[in-house]
Amino acid sequence: MRILENHSMKNHSNMKVGGVAKRFIVVENKEELKDIFEKYRNIFLIGNGTNTLIDEGDLDITFVSLKELNKIEELGEGIVRVEAGLDFNKLIAFMNRNNYSGLENLAGIPGSVGGLVYMNGGAYGSEIFDCIKEVEIFDENHQIRTLKKEDIKFSYRSTEIQDKKWVIISATFEFKRGFDLQKVIDIQALRESKQPLDKPNLGSTFKNPEGDFSARLISEAGLKGTRVGGAEISSKHPNFIVNHGDATFEDISKILTLVKEKIKKLYNIQLEEEIIILKNNRVL
């Protein structure tokens, strides 16, 4: 493992906001997790930081990265084991090369494979758990275990893995043949046309309430384009908050509060964040 002390976290979040971590540990072998979790406290596992808002100032947190655990291994026809640190779109590229199908609707989502599995990430009616066969985890008892899909509780943007704060080491997928390249091209074009990908952001900020869409509610509430400091509710996609370059954690937090209060007042709907908010030494 590699340990970096007093490490700036600003570039580890897609929002480009973050303070200085007590330490940042890069895991090079899954067996190192036991030593890390027995030695340190206030541990936060960070993937690509594509949905993680990190507080500023001095952070009494040990960040752990699995980015070097990024291997892909074919175990049989359509059965593929992928380590958690792999960039998700490298998995899509692998599927293209090998004519595997099942996750095309998720193409273009930024993040690591482990990050998407952790929260059951998805898009356009598909979820990553659609193709999951089993997941290798490091549990609260510091044991490495492999769980079959049917033994894991998961729902919309939520998993038992997240609730119990297990560490995902790898996931085994079961794919069909017939990669749909045109679908991937169309979805990526759609993302570029509808999402503010030219500015730092954390993707969809709020989960969709049952039977509705957060973006629609935010738009109808007249909040598109609302700005606090360097942070703004995107006019292009109102469920995105963008950083114009000088946004602070406080700016973004104020926008989150503003949106939730306004939607609650107008529609009596309590929006829930889809992003992870890390304030000093705790997840909100």
UniProtKB/TrEMBL annotation:
* Cofactor(s) it depends on: FAD
Q: Which UniProt keywords apply?
A: Cell cycle, Cell division, Cell shape, Cell wall biogenesis/degradation, Cytoplasm, FAD, Flavoprotein, NADP, Oxidoreductase, Peptidoglycan synthesis
Transmembrane region positions?
none
One Gene Ontology term of the molecular function aspect? FAD binding
Principal cellular location given in the protein's record: cytoplasm
Q: Per the database record, which ranges form the FAD-binding PCMH-type domain?
A: 17-178
InterPro entries according to UniProt: FAD-bd_PCMH, FAD-bd_PCMH-like_sf, FAD-bd_PCMH_sub1, FAD-bd_PCMH_sub2, MurB, MurB_C, MurB_C_sf, Oxid_FAD_bind_N
Question: Its Gene Ontology biological processes?
Answer: cell division; cell wall organization; peptidoglycan biosynthetic process; regulation of cell shape
Note whether Cell cycle occurs among the keywords: yes
Q: Which reaction does it catalyse?
A: UDP-N-acetyl-alpha-D-muramate + NADP(+) = UDP-N-acetyl-3-O-(1-carboxyvinyl)-alpha-D-glucosamine + NADPH + H(+)
Instruction: Name the NCBIfam families on file.
Output: murB, PRK13905.1
Q: Which family does it belong to?
A: Belongs to the MurB family.
Record's PANTHER family? UDP-N-ACETYLENOLPYRUVOYLGLUCOSAMINE REDUCTASE
Q: What does this protein do?
A: Cell wall formation.
Name assigned to this protein = UDP-N-acetylenolpyruvoylglucosamine reductase
Q: Which gene encodes it?
A: murB
